[in-house]
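quick q for whoever's on today - can somebody do inverse folding on this one?? i tried earlier but teh output was garbage lol. tokens:
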């Protein structure tokens, strides 16, 4: 038996939340290890819909420990707002069931303002299309050693010191952008007001994980975003500001890499992307329109329409190698039901030259022309299928071809948003 790390294989929104929720039935601890409330995960359990951003997707199951690791950037107001919202749906959330790493860095209102101001000021190719949640600026402050952390909320004197340090950097910047400067006293007061709501959840996460290891408990590490949004391995600079690759699970939670276990890449049966940046297989046409409508491809966080396109096997193979994926969960296969033909991208052409990978250079990424292979579709429905036997032969052929091209086996198949519409092929917990 082993722990499991769940990561996205594409540009996010692959269905990580659904799979983490499904797998968490057998986990004792579910840990988020990077990102923040830029993530948006939709869970559907007996028709009841839960929308999560910052809370781990194990939160809806009773008796599990949900953990927000140090690798996450935490907006304290967003955290408390989400706890309240999910509680209203009948989910019990207490300091027993939820822990936030005391050493996690905070997202402050100034980070959101800087994020939005920069996006507004960015012209032409510079706009990233961020979620506007302050993620980038918060990680910048963390790395620059001027962040306010969860534990700082317990010490007023230190908090003031940290804020002064932070504002000495941000206020001149805001002034330069023509934005209003941060009111020091108001910010400190806001933080002191929210502190008593957040601090009961603050804890020493590495100890929880060490105890879990010693007691042989199962830990599920929940990634946000996807491999192509990884700050090192993604379509830089059109990425998020954290490492989404599974190596981050150990660092962003506080345990050794040996403890993170099986690596499961959540992979959509086609491709979507929110925000700016290269997207070789994008279908800005009827096909993309149909994928978007059938897949309900609208962002959970910002409501933006997701860009849609065919499955890109070159990109997912690269993601699988970079992440060391042991298997994938193939999701949203049902969205392809009824397509007469389905295309899969099997190679790239750039300036007449063929590539079997996505080169790092932005200039080359912009010029990628996908090379497609066309397969016949299927007219039967796979929606809600719960066993392999229910799948049409042509759908199985598609899955087999995907496995072959990405050189990684399918461990789980998902056929609808509902928790139980899931087919287990190989159990990740079995390693
Ligand atoms: P995440 O960010 O990776 O957790 O994914 P999101 O929740 O943002 O987006 C995935 C969307 O697809 C959600 O609305 C899910 O309810 C839905 N979904 C997940 N798996 C499936 C599936 O197999 N079929 C269909 N039709 N929808 C799915
Ligand atoms: P989940 O966990 C899809 C994208 C944004 C933007 C880029 C940078 O639901 O899969 P940021 O606000 O992080 O600085 O934005 O990353 N992005 C996501 N796209 N799903 C997500 O999360 C995303 N989180 C960030 O759209 O292109
Ligand atoms: Mg999402």
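ok took a stab at it. sequence:
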């Amino acid at each position: 038996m082993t722990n499991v790390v769940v990561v996205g294989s594409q540009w996010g929104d692959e269905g990580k939340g659904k799979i983490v929720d499904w797998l968490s039935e057998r986990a004792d601890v579910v840990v988020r290890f990077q990102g923040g409330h830029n993530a948006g995960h939709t869970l559907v359990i007996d028709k009841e819909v839960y929308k999560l951003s910052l809370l781990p997707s194990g939160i809806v199951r009773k008796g599990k420990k949900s953990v927000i690791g140090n690798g996450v950037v935490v907006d304290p107001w967003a955290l408390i707002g989400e706890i309240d919202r999910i509680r209203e749906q009948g989910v019990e959330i207490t300091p027993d069931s939820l822990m936030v790493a005391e050493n996690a860095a905070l997202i402050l209102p100034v980070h959101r303002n800087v994020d939005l101001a920069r996006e507004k000021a960015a012209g032409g190719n510079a706009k990233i299309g961020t979620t506007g949640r302050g993620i980038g600026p918060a990680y910048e402050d963390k790395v620059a050693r001027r962040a306010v952390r969860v534990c700082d909320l317990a010490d007023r004197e230190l908090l003031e010191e940290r804020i002064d340090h932070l504002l000495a950097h941000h206020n001149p910047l805001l002034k330069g952008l023509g934005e209003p400067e941060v009111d020091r006293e108001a910010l400190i007061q806001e933080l002191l007001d929210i502190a008593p709501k957040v601090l009961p959840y603050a804890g020493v996460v590495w100890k929880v994980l060490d105890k879990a290891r010693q007691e042989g408990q199962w830990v599920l590490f929940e990634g946000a975003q996807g491999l192509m949004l990884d700050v090192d391995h993604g379509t830089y600079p059109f990425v998020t500001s954290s490492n989404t690759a599974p190596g981050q699970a150990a660092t962003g939670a506080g345990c050794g890499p040996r403890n993170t276990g099986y690596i499961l890449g959540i992979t959509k049966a086609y491709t979507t992307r929110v925000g700016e940046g290269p997207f070789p297989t994008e279908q800005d046409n009827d096909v993309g329109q149909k994928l978007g409508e059938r897949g309900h491809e609208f962002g959970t966080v910002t409501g933006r329409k997701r860009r849609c396109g065919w499955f890109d096997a070159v990109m997912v193979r690269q993601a699988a190698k970079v992440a060391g994926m042991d298997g994938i969960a193939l999701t949203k296969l049902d969205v392809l039901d009824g397509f007469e033909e389905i295309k899969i991208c099997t190679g790239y052409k750039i300036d007449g030259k063929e590539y079997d990978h996505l080169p790092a250079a932005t200039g080359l990424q912009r010029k990628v022309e996908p090379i497609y292979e066309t397969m016949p579709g299927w007219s039967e429905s796979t929606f809600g299928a719960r066993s392999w036997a229910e799948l049409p032969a042509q759908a199985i052929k598609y899955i087999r071809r995907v496995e072959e091209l990405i050189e990684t086996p399918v461990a789980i198949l998902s056929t609808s948003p509902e928790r139980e519409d899931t087919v287990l092929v190989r159990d990740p917990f079995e390693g």
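fwiw Residues 8, 11-13, 38-41, 128-131, 133, 135-136, 224-226, 229, 240-241, 274-275 surround 6-O-phosphoryl inosine monophosphate (ligand 2) (CB under 6 Å). also Residues 95 and 334 are 39 Å apart (CA to CA). so keep that in mind when u check it
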